[in-house]
Each structure stands twice: as C-alpha cells, then as structure tokens.
C-alpha cells in the first residue's frame, strides 16, 4: 500500500519548534488559513471517474484507479458521487482501447472489447488508458515492465503497474500543473492503445 505523506504545514511546525528551542516563538506570515491551504491542495489533486458506462469492465476500472492511487502521491482517482459530474468518463465499446484526454486529469477512456477478445488483460488496459489521462504518452515498442508500452508487450503481459519512470512523470505532471509551470496533457488528441 502506498502511504501518502503530509507536507502542508511542515515548514510552519519546524519554524515554531526551532523558535521555541531558541526561547522566542515567531509566527510565520500566512494569507490563508492552514486548513484552507490543505483543503485546496488536496482538492486540486483529486479527480473523479465515472465507470457506470464501462459495463463488464467496471471492476477492472476500479482496480486500475486503485493501482494509480497506490503508485503516486500527486493525484488521487475516486469514483464520482451520485449527482456529480466526473473528471473522467470510462466507457466500454467494441473498438480498440483508447483515451481522449481533454486537460490533465480529465477526459474519456474507452475499454475496447477488441483487445480483450484478443487476450489482453483488462486491468492492464484500464491502468494504461488512465495513464494517458494522467499525461503519459504511449511508449512503443516496449517491455512488459512499462505500463505505457501497451499492446506491444503482448497478450502474455498482465503487468498493470507503472514503472519508476512513469510514476515520476505523473508526479512531475501534477506538481508542475499545481505550480502553474506546465503539466499539460495532449488535449483533444485521441490516443489509441
């Protein structure tokens, strides 16, 4: 299980601790209440997905989202609450798996039955397509150890986990996006496989 690390407020705690050790406490200036800063940082990283249209692949979609949640700290994928609009729509169809990112963390995933009928693993497909929504490109050809190698790893490959490079790239995409320095997905471009 991947443990998320609390980072908000650490500098303030250290400032107060070291100031108290020196005999004088000095409050760090703040323009926003700490709880609001923590809430906005978390809210900016949480993306919801709607798997209601994924038919027989719903459990694979849920597992693919859980794998990303276990693998990275910068983003969390949650099922959408009733009555809310999701960031990510997941649909089943008879075509080949594909993703249509709109912006980083947003878009549509298609779990295509064509690949499943050929023997590709549904959880790997789900994780791979969600990887596109998180800003990762295809890496073809590639080994089974690379989630984003997609179908080039062959039907025997069932690895649904991103490798170290892929995890780091997602972390960087979202930290850059939060800092306003980049992290854009390939918006409006259908990524097949």
Largest sheet: 6 strands, mixed
Whole-angstrom Rg: 19 Å
Strand content: 15-25%
Topology order in helix (H) and strand (E) letters = HHEHEEEEHHHE
Instruction: Enumerate the strands of the largest sheet in spatial order, edge to edge or round the barrel.
Output: 2-1-3-5-4-6
Low-confidence segments, given as residue ranges, are: 5-44
Overall residue-averaged pLDDT value: 81
Query: What's the number of helices?
Result: 6
Termini gap? 28 Å
Going by helix content, strand content and strand pairing, the class is alpha/beta
Q: Percent helix among the residues?
A: 25-40%
Would you write up a description of this structure?
- The chain contains six helices and six strands; from the N terminus they run ααβαββββαααβ.
- The protein is of the alpha/beta class and 193 residues long.
- Residues 5-44 have low confidence and may be disordered.
